[in-house]
Structure to design on (305 residues):
């Protein structure tokens, strides 16, 4: 139902009330790419959140916890300021590329640090501090850029699924397929990992390699979605918990697909509501997600950490 509504309805009205020439443009240039971006982006963020929660064995871990989202924002701010100083226009493709480069830079730094820091808690703290540093650099760059480019940066930070083209969606599909197949091949190792380091080692599993795989693939999916749609909150955090409410399976092989489907549904309906109410998608996901997390913490107050 949500899929049909997303394609058939928008700010321009119902598709069947639009002349065919305009309807064709709306469908293939705006609504279908936006709907696909919401589905794929929501699914990718849900998987990234699930993998982050496996990595830290913490139900409140989210895709942005390692600072990847902040790195993407820093990359956009850097390019926006640089282009404004040189008098060049900021193209949408440049925003996506700079966002991806900033996120990958943070991810590469964390990848190097993971081989030096054995503690996952240490990696978590390092990632959070890296995110704060990237956020500080972004704030400085925002202060130096002109008002015209600053408004574009602020708009990007609100998040939107209408930036992606069919070509960009192809890139996202490719990254998702590689990530899903690679992680599915490690399903037994991931189930053992979720039981603790000692159990995983007793089964001959390298905890270092599994943690790196979880970090890299979760970070890459977050980076790609953030580059195309901006920072989208709470989809990755809530999807795995909601999936467990309607799906009985608990092993990785049984759960990853319901988690991805749940993320797709959350993103799609939040996008519909944001269009209906005229508010940014990031605000909508936060309005829905924040109260849910608060209730979850109150209900599970003895088992959050």
């Amino acid at each position: 139902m949500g899929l049909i509504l997303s394609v058939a309805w928008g700010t321009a009205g119902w598709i069947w009330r639009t002349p065919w020439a305009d309807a064709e443009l709306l469908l293939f240039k705006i609504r279908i790419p936006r709907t696909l971006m919401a589905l794929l982006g929501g699914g990718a963020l849900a998987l990234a959140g699930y993998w982050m929660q496996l990595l830290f064995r913490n139900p409140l871990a989210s895709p942005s916890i390692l600072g990847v989202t902040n790195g993407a924002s820093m990359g956009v701010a850097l390019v926006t300021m640089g282009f404004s100083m040189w008098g060049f226009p900021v193209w949408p493709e440049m925003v996506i590329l700079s966002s991806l480069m900033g996120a990958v830079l943070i991810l590469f730094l964390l990848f190097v640090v993971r081989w030096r820091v054995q503690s996952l808690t240490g990696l978590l703290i390092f990632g959070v501090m890296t995110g704060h540093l990237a956020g500080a650099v972004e704030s400085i760059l925002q202060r130096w850029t002109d008002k015209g480019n600053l408004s574009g940066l602020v708009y990007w930070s609100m998040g939107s699924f209408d930036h992606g083209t069919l070509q960009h969606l192809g890139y996202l599909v490719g990254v998702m397929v590689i990530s899903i197949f690679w992680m599915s091949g490690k399903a037994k190792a991931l189930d053992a990992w979720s039981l603790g380091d000692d159990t995983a080692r007793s089964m001959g599993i390298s905890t270092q390699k599994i943690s790196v795989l979880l970090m890299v693939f979760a970070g890459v999916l977050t980076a790609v979605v953030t580059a195309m749609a901006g920072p989208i909150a709470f989809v990755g955090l809530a999807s795995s918990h909601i999936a467990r409410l309607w799906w009985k399976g608990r092993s990785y092989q049984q759960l990853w697909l319901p988690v991805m489907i749940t993320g797709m549904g959350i993103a799609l309906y939040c996008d519909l509501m944001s269009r209906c109410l005229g508010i940014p998608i990031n605000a909508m996901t936060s309005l829905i997600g924040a109260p849910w997390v608060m209730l979850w913490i109150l209900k599970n107050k003895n088992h959050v950490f």
About this structure: Residues 20-56 form the longest helix (37 residues). The two ends are 37 Å apart (CA to CA). DSSP finds 13 helices and no strands in the chain. The CA atoms of residues 112 and 290 lie 33 Å apart.
